Automatic annotation (TrEMBL), chains A, B:
This is NADH:ubiquinone reductase (non-electrogenic). It comes from Terriglobus albidus. It comes from the Bacteria. Residues 7-327 form the FAD/NAD(P)-binding domain. InterPro entries: FAD/NAD-bd_sf, FAD/NAD-binding_dom, NDH-2.
Length: 423, 423
């Protein structure tokens, strides 16, 4: 590599990393984006893959393809294992080799988050989460399989456990997943079986807090709760999950026999803090400075779900918008440094608003004082999500699929695919 | 179950089993279709999933959905392990239980075929085949992964091995797969990489026979061979594959270093012959009578790839058309027996013709004396395949996807998804 062109290494091809890379298009830097997957996933729609509405390829796009036209950018499939900030070097596992070293002039860690079981790691085996395409496909396989088993099960208690779904965590993912299952069992699956009626499935949404969608205004939480109850979802609030095993969960003091417990309650950041050996917050996220760098490392940026930054006395939420805005900020900040111009003013998140879907035709929307729930909010949700899907070719296909599922109740991707090998 | 309504048990939801079930719609029988997968796969397009053109959901449909409107039919997810023809009973593994027994009045075994390595089972680990959605997804993951590794590989011989593809077997699947890879590396992947040029990939198609597409007329084999050479595919004929290991294959006396060997050379029938303990042909397929039943078992039918029947002195080929025509024949034959009407005249296969695609814009077509190759044959191929896709909602989506890939060279489903769990 020439010494003249600064090298920007971005780790992670999620919303933050991709936004950084795209904002560096045509800039006088050499960009390398490293991700352990070959694709960017539109995470807010993972629940639709898990409930057979969309195919994995409709919410994911190969990172290479997204950045192919950017001549200053290359993409590497690799798993980062460490950072040597002193030597400005990261180590990765790639191409079947461990400890491959890559030098950087600027480093952007956008490595996201995974599930947190709040110290109950033993729950993990029985209550998977929903963070990756593989998670979503596993859940799709599982949900379809429990109905197949229920159809063949003569023992009533076992049949009920197969047809009971427990969602732990009533944030957007838990609410969307619970309502999507409720809609699926009453529409798509209704006519498929002869011995069971999928519409009788029991769906329980549990949270320790006192209301669903805790980050929304109280009136919207109420609207969402009402809608969930209308959809037949049992909402259990203020009840901690005491235990989870292969036969179900104990929520408060109620044992719920279930073969499907889904965990959406907590997230744990990537090990970026450990790699850097720097200050982290209680959840383990890297405490970053208002210019999104790490203390004493003006060339190391940390953004998105793995970073912790307060704004107006409150931590920024772990949402796509924060990561994307941070990514674009970082790209500008790096260019300023290279061009020896004065630094940017500190990062400020511009909150465009929040949306969560509750089943068909219903969403809650909160944006800069506006609070609405119902069909209009749902329409806004659909339009915004089509708009934001990273790859233009995906938009049309998702739109068509939604239209078809909306009108007919059919779900195209109702496949249980077993035994795939990976290499 | 009432004794008055005869129970038809169909094993296998491929072309043969599905055709039987559909032809029994509204008939005075109770139909049970058992398959170990929840979906019917349109096998002739598996190679397009393996080469990232189509998504799994575009060539597969849930069997329940396909038969949901047929009130006399139920579907069961289960793996058949044996047949007791004396007691008219099959045993299956289903719902985590082994040895579940199911009684039948009529049995239709349409259990298809798997790969055969002609006694070289040790090849299986290094040369997967292409029979199921899981196979196709594994290959897709693998093909995309070797390019990712090649991009990072400094050692030239290792890089070349990563970019070399060996197809064993020059039947339709081998020819279609070889040409599809050739098109993919020259279009879709071309701009994705910085260190390698995917278009320089080496593609070798090997067969023991003297020509590709051996079941077609010689002039069409010649046309196909010419087209393969134009696409840059190396065609090795009359050369047996001596060995296959993790570093490549020995074809004739040439060692070809390769990280991707794909086996399309042979098929082995399902164990239907063993279950029935009846006469089989050299390949292990059940020898059936002209009415598609097994000797001395007028209530047991065997159809499709797992059956062996001669017509005009030659065995019927293992193609979808044979299985579908047999399935419809069996449905009629069963109804005749139930209604005490005279039996049907013996089964006769009506050969509508054969088609094979060689890359973009080129196919060979042979049908009742007509032999054409080139663009017109390719158009016919595209129309017929859209027409035959089992599920009407799939047709439109496949058509759109093809149109997009045809015009832009883009492939939507270029995803490496790792670590999915099955339950």
């Amino acid at each position: 590599m020439s010494n003249k062109i600064p090298r920007v290494v971005i780790v992670g091809g999620g919303f933050g990393g991709l936004a950084t890379a795209k904002a560096l298009r045509g800039a006088p830097v050499s960009v390398l984006l490293v991700d352990r997957n070959n694709h960017h996933v539109f995470q807010p729609l993972l629940y639709q893959v898990a409930t057979s509405v969309l195919a994995p390829g409709q919410i994911a796009a190969p990172i290479r393809g997204l950045l192919a036209a950017q001549e200053n950018t290359s993409v590497m499939l690799g798993n980062v294992t460490g950072v040597n900030a002193e030597l400005k070097r990261i180590t990765i596992d790639a191409n079947d080799q461990t400890g491959v070293e890559i030098d950087y002039d600027y480093l952007v860690l956008a490595t996201g988050a995974t599930h947190s079981y709040f110290g109950h790691d033993e729950f993990a085996a029985f209550a998977p989460g929903l963070k990756s395409l593989a998670d979503a496909e596993s859940l799709r396989n599982h949900i379809l399989t429990v109905f197949e088993k229920a159809e063949l099960e003569d023992d009533a208690p076992r049949r009920h456990a197969l047809m009971t779904f427990v969602l732990v965590g009533a944030g957007p993912t838990g609410v969307e997943m619970a309502s999507a299952i409720a809609v699926m069992v009453r529409t798509t699956l209704r006519k498929d079986f002869r011995n069971i009626d999928p519409a009788t499935a029991r769906i329980v949404l549990a949270d320790m807090g006192q209301r669903p969608l805790g980050t929304f205004a109280e009136e919207l939480s109420e609207a969402a709760k009402l809608r969930l109850l209308q959809l037949g979802v049992e909402v259990r609030l203020g009840k901690p999950v005491q235990s989870i095993d292969e036969d179900g969960a104990v929520v408060g003091d109620e044992r719920i026999p279930s073969k499907t417990v889904i965990w959406t309650a907590g997230v744990a950041p990537s090990p970026a803090g450990k790699w850097l050996g720097c200050e982290v917050d209680r959840a383990g996220r890297v405490r970053i400075r208002p210019d999104l760098t790490v203390s004493n490392r003006p060339e190391v940026y940390v953004i998105g779900d793995t970073a912790s930054l307060d704004q107006d006395g409150r931590p920024l939420p772990g949402v796509a918008q924060v990561a994307m805005q941070q990514g674009r900020y970082v790209a500008k900040a790096i260019l300023r440094k290279i061009e020896m111009r004065p630094p940017l003013s500190p990062f400020r998140y511009f909150d465009k608003g929040n949306l969560a879907v509750v089943g068909k035709n219903f969403a809650v929307l909160q944006s800069r004082g506006v609070k609405i729930s119902g069909f209009i909010a749902w329409l806004v949700w659909a339009l915004i999500h089509i708009q934001f899907l990273a790859d233009s070719s995906l938009r049309f296909s998702v739109f068509l699929q939604w239209l078809m599922t909306y009108v007919s109740g059919r779900r195209g991707d109702r496949l249980i695919i077993q035994g795939r090998k990976t290499s």
